[in-house]
Amino acid sequence: MFNYAIYASHRQDVIVITSSKNIIKACEYFKISCISHKRFTFKQMITDHIEVKRKVNDLIETIGNDPLHFSHTQFAVFCFILVSAMFKIKKKIVFHDFEYVYKKKHFSLFSKDMVYISILVFLMKVLYHVPLEIRDAGKALPISMPLDYILSNASQVMNEKDRYFLKTLEGIKETKMTSFKIDSILIDQGFDQQNYYIQDEVSKIIELITDYNVEIKAHPKMLSKYLALFKTPLPEYVPVEFYFPVVNNCVISCHSSSLITATHFDNLKVISLIDIIGKNNDIMREARSHLLENGNDKILFPKNIKELRELLEIN
To answer: How far is it, in rounded angstroms, from Cα 20 to Cα 78?
Structure first.
């Protein structure tokens, strides 16, 4: 969604509301106005619900009659409280519909496998009167607002599934990055997460790319231990797509959707590591299919370290 904020900032005044330190830094970098608020933990949302409601009311007053744009369908519980409160008083809400989380199974509350998170969701509903549900995304179990509730209350729904990449590309084109060049870039998606990545293979790849002129870029919310092996990792708060115009050779990752964006740059070699480091599970299988369907037949899938080395050596 921050990519959309960059795109929109070239066309109108935009203010980003966030509690994320990385988004605050990104707003400073891209010269976008920002309102920061305290990051409330689940415990604070329960014990300090009066303070949470006060902050929600302050934000509603600040927003006034301007529309609030959001696309969060999972995890962002404070956002859900704000949005739900604005729905109740008929404020303008524009929902950017990506809908990915709604492909996942909806759990009933108080499932025996997740009593703790079920109790938290129940308390959120009691304290804030926000309809919430839990979905199956492997270990994550994202909390979301029901899609029907969002669609029936939003003043406008923008279907972004087909236009997101076009808007990102337009935003990249209109944004001038600092004048420097990168030979190749590795997008680290939290590669030390053992549930998703084969650690022995990740270690081999990290060792391999140190022989080449490859910069590493972390995911802003998933900082892995491998970053410490690089002297100057690229700032994680800048969306990785905005580096692509200054990359000369390769864009490398596992299953990042940014690989699809990279295929729109004719000079770039786009490499997915999913067949080397991705564990054999539903998430990786779905991600690989997504890359194949949307990658314009330009994403390369090396099967082993030898094939990856050959791709890095062929300019």
So the answer is: 12
Q: What is the pLDDT along the chain (315 residues), one digit of tens a residue?
A: 788 888 888 888 999 999 988 899 999 989 999 999 999 988 899 999 999 999 999 999 999 999 999 887 666 889 999 999 999 999 999 998 765 555 554 544 445 556 777 888 888 889 999 998 876 655 556 788 888 898 899 999 887 766 777 788 888 888 877 667 889 999 998 888 888 899 999 999 988 988 888 888 888 777 778 777 777 778 888 889 989 988 999 999 999 888 998 999 999 999 999 999 998 887 888 889 989 988 889 999 999 999 999 998 865
The CATH number of 178-313 is 3.40.50.850
Residue ranges per structural domain of the chain: 2-170, 178-313
Count of other CB atoms within 10 angstroms of residue 238: 19
Q: How many CB atoms lie within 10 A of CB 35?
A: 14
